[in-house]
Amino acid sequence: MTFSNKRNFPTVLFTTLLVIFLSFGTVTAQVGIGTTNPLAMLHIEASNADTPTVTDGFLMPRVNNLADESLAPTLGMMVFYNGALTGNMKHTLYYYDGTNWVNAIGEIANAANPVSLYDWDDTNKGVVYWIDAQNPSHYKIVAALEFDTEFGRTNNDSGHGGECDNHLCTSGANGFEATKSWIDAHSSLDSSHYDEYAASAAYYYDGDSSLGSANIGWYLPTPGEMNFIARNATSINSALSSVTHTDINNVDMRYWVCQDSKVDKAVLVKIKAANQEYKPEEKDKDYDDNPVKARPVREIGG
Question: Element (H or E) spanning 14, and its range?
Answer without folding.
Answer: helix 9-25
